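During the reporting period the student researcher (J.K.) took over the structure-prediction task from the postdoctoral fellow and processed the backlog of single-chain submissions. One of the processed entries is reproduced below for the supervisory committee.
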Amino acid sequence: MRTSLPLPLPPLLPLLLGLLFFALSLTPSLIPRGWVVQGMLGGLVAALGYMIGRFVLMLWRQMYLPRLGGRAADIAHGIVAVPVAAVLVYCLSKAGLWQNEIWVLMGLEPRDETHVIAMVLLAAMLFAALLFLGRLVRFLFDRTRRHLYRYMPERTADIAGLILVAAALFFVTRDGMIDRVLRAADNSYTAAQALFETGPPPPADPAITGSAASLVDWETMGQPGRDFVTGGPGAGDIAAFTGRPALRPIRIYVGLAQDEDPQARAELALEELKRVGGFDREVLIVAMPTGTGWLDPGSFDVVEYMNSGDIASVAVQYSYLQSPLALMTETDSGLEQARALIRAVHEYWRGLPPDERPRLYMHGLSLGAWASMFGTDLFALLDDPIDGALWAGPPFPSAFWNQAVAARNSGSPYVAPEVGGGRLIRFASHTKPAGPPTGWGSIRLMFLQYSSDPIVFYEPTSLFRRPAWMREPPAEDVSPELRFIPVVTQFQLAMDMALANSAPPGHGHAYHAPDYIGPWRAVTAPRDWTDEDSARLALHCSNGFQQGCGPQ
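J.K. obtained the following structure tokens:
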């Protein structure tokens, strides 16, 4: 009788599970992936699959359950290996088609970016590196617990060793190494924004923020702020487009380097807004920028054209980091800044005679939308409410967005909800119209979101549960081959978030200027604006993402 033998190291079953995870990672998600990104994703999920397999084997052994050995083990491995190999071959053969299908759905030509051999080699290298790190952690755990055997029972030492190693890893990755990397990235971006030797001189016009007459220092505004206050259409551009008299839009921006205190920055923005006559305009927008301090010119150019330049916008920077990093590390900074700015502006605005003050709106894109929603405390504004808001690409943790989606009408799609009769909240996208400027209640709240935007539709629970939007028929720019796969889907969507801005304009997280037209028209109800005007402006702004609409 043959005795039971341990599985070879590394065990074959965990390797097969890792290989299966790699194959399934080739399936499509929201954003198309090139071979480098796919190789990194494949290596990562393969390592996760291997780790899960090892963990299951460990539990099996700890519970002293029967184990196969000898020929029975070889047969079992073969039974598992055959379908895994079949899935791998199928996924490799379809990988390029799946990614090209997404490109086509997003309006672009197919691409030959599969490079199967290079992608597989990259995945294998990353898998090997992660496997080495895993063995290193196991080595540290073994050394720690064996050292503790001198002072306590084995089971107690095992638990204590696990806790100590986990705590050390947490410190190194979260409170040590990663924090230092993020601080270095933050500081480097700060330095980059502070290089003024090659930057433009301060504006000569005293009405522009950053000029000699301004309360805001030009040197503290950084590139995003300088671009914002000096960009956009002028009065002549708007008049040439509309054929009607126009004003030069007012844009106020206070940089993060202006003052360490968010309240001080908010109060300075208010004083600058008062200095240049922002409260004398027809429309006033309080905007929150993205993590880097960037404000989408496509959005502001559109609403300025539509309102004949009789508009003022004010924004305050709260971070230098890209939004995904700011979302993880500086969330409180954005929320605190939004609350301070909105409260300061609203308190002054509500003290003005109702028939002499501008219509007040909130606005934000991405992390700026989340911060703006948080700072717009509707309960605090009930006695004198704002006129409305437009929030674009709201990140998935946004509480108010989640509440609005949860309140959608029965049968309403998750990615394009309808809430009530559309009197308080509306949703718009590149395929769903915003609706007319009529039919609203006293407050107009609008969400602009794309069905392929992973920043909006990522769900942490996708590790083990199908997201709600995946239970519905796929949207127009989402692959019909997208399938929920436990663990794998979680990391596909996480990778999609990192790639969200690389999508073509009008998809992913790349919000396109023409798509702001309908929402801004519905929210601000510009005077004498027609459907024909919207069509002309959409054509004029057809290249609007990140460049804005530009002059006539």
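The committee noted the following: DSSP finds 17 helices and seven strands in the chain.
J.K. will present the remaining backlog at the next meeting.
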